[in-house]
Amino acid sequence: MRELTYVARHSVEWREAPDPKLRSDQEAIVAPVAATSCDVDSAILAGHGFIDPPFALGHECVARVVDIGDAVTSVVPGELVVVPWSINCGDCEHCRSGLTAHCTAVPHMAMYGAPIGGSWGGLFSDLVRVPYADAMLVPLPEGLDPVAMASASDNWSLSWRLVAPHLKARPGARVLVVARGSIGLYVCDIARALGASSVLYVDPDPEHRALARSYGASTAASIEPMPHAFDLAVEATGRVDQLALAVKSLAPEGICESAGNHFRPGELPLLDMYLTGVTLRVARDNVRNHIPDALELAASGKVAPERVVSHVIDWEQLPDALPGKHLKPVFVRDTTPPSTAG
After folding, report:
1. pLDDT digit string, tens, across residues 33-90
2. What is the dihedral of CA 88, 90, 93, 95, to 10 degrees?
3. Using omega within 30 degrees of 0 as the cis cutoff, is the peptide bond preceding 107 cis?
4. What superfamily would CATH give domain 2-153+304-332?
5. Strand 28-36, strand 61-68: pairing
6. Fewer CB within 10 Å: C terminus or N terminus of the chain?
7. Domain 155-282: CATH class, spelled out
8. Spatial separation of the C-alpha atoms in residues 212 and 209, rounded to whole Å
9. CA-wise closest residue to 86 among 107, 69, 56
10. Is the pTM of this model over 0.90?
């Protein structure tokens, strides 16, 4: 099989690798059918990551199940599934408490798409081994488009977690979104659908702002801090100055969720945060715990994640197209098993 490999800044290529095999009766082999780049992949391709190449890329996809071990009961061959970005057993203390990104059955931060916590390959691969199939794989609800849901492995489900629990606790909250990619746009869509009283989306890209307005958000290319203006702020830029802007704009006891990939250091306005009493969470998400709820919202018809998909591109074009500047490209292929009828 082939796996798409990051080899240098702005450069990826297909490399041959052995076909994955089942190593236990709890495993599955899947074939991605709609895979997309996470916002962090864009940072890696731009040379801002902290891991030296080469390594297999990709950690967001909908896949078709190809083979399963004898003990697997939750999925069957031929079924479409969401493959979460992190490797998790579902049975350790952390997994049972929802901390699936911190599974103790595997090295810390074991994941697809980067050699952190071992080498698990990437989801831009022809075939992928899933070590704990019942714990990890989530069947795609009937009627949901794999292209629209390619990001459910991470960005879409993360975006649900960034706002949905807070809007449940604070109905009608005022929401600030400071972003540069797909996460911020998904947040706008979800926040509107779940009853935010207002959403302000801040992004220098005019096309992104236009898309945010289609979700009912007001927009700005940039703003100065707006003290006490928002109950919830979501930062997804990877820039500490923009994170500081977000926390400075919070109301007393406001909450800031940082989904940016902060590869570079910076300073936060700690005194302002102290005086306002803000809560700041900077976290790599335990996304497997949220995928079912995020898919349920997607299936409700109240949201339109498909609008964030900027390009639908043939799988074979991955090496040429992935390094390009795209908001949310989805790479597709047909892995439907051949019919044996007749």
Report:
1. 999 999 788 888 888 777 889 999 999 999 999 999 999 999 999 999 999 999 999 9
2. 60
3. no
4. Medium-chain alcohol dehydrogenases, catalytic domain (3.90.180.10)
5. antiparallel
6. C
7. alpha beta
8. 5
9. 107
10. yes
Q: Amino acid identity of 189?
A: D
CA separation, residue 44 to residues 49, 98, 194, 313 (Å): 5, 28, 32, 20
- CA 325, CA 318: separation in Å to the nearest integer? 13
| pLDDT per position as a tens digit, 214-259 | 999 999 999 999 999 999 999 999 899 999 999 999 999 999 999 9
Burial class (CB in 10 A: 0-12, 13-18, 19+), 25: exposed
Please state the domain extents for the chain.
2-153+304-332, 155-282
Find, among 246, 94, 232, 115, the residue nearest to 180 by Cα: 246
Among the listed residues 30, 27, 133, the one whose alpha carbon sits nearest the alpha carbon of residue 77: 30
The three-class DSSP label of residue 337 is coil
- Cα 111 from Cα 116, distance rounded (Å): 6
Q: Which two tokens stand for residue 130?
A: 């899933």
